Amino acid sequence: MNSINKIWPVIFLLLIIFSCNDKKPDQIIEKHNSKDSDVLKYKSEEQAIAGFYKTITDSNNDCFVSIVITELKTGYFYSLQTNSRNVSGKVRFSINDSGEKYITLEGIKWDEYEGDISNEDETDSVSDSKTASKELEIPVGIDASYVKDTLTIQNYGNSMNSYTKISECGRKYIQLIKRKVF
């Protein structure tokens, strides 16, 4: 009986040692690499953004917009073409708080911007002639969300925040579909 009492602690100790060795180091590595893989996934999507994008034309042919995004050694660059203008510049990448991916086409001046009405003064400018009207600075740079092979630009706002980014196109949301990959 005395020898059995001495064997139980040894067996218990061996069970503890073997149970500690059953943990797979791969699980720890997978948890550690999850953020790295998100960064790698973003980088690969960033690289996949290069190509030729064009709006789907309807019977009215009211909205022609095309964007070519190319990758050079110094970064990504775009060339935007509509029926009335050709603009080119640098592409900047970003991710918002909810994880949505955006590009900014830098250097494109919005066509119209009346601003957010919550920033207006309480006084009526017609009744107060001494108050000089403030000129709003028109924003520069157009944001486009991107998912897989589609860029989406919100082209104009609403009565609370009135703006138009590309007046040549009357669509609220301009969707550009990738046609060619470079």
What does this structure look like?
This protein is elongated. An 8-stranded antiparallel beta barrel has the order 1-2-3-4-5-7-8-10. A two-stranded antiparallel sheet has the order 6-9. It is of the alpha+beta class and 182 residues long. Helices cover 24% and strands 39% of the residues.
Physical arrangement of strands within the biggest beta sheet: 1-2-3-4-5-7-8-10
**% residues in beta strands:** 35-45%
Instruction: Flag low-confidence runs.
Output: 25-42, 127-132
Helix content estimate: 10-25%
Biggest β-sheet, characterized? 8 strands, antiparallel, barrel
What does the secondary structure layout of this molecule look like, with pairings?
Elements: H1 2-21, H2 25-48, E1 51-55, E2 65-72, E3 75-82, E4 86-95, E5 101-109, E6 112-116, E7 140-147, E8 150-154, E9 161-164, E10 173-181
Antiparallel strand pairs: 1-2, 1-10, 2-3, 3-4, 4-5, 5-7, 6-9, 7-8, 8-10
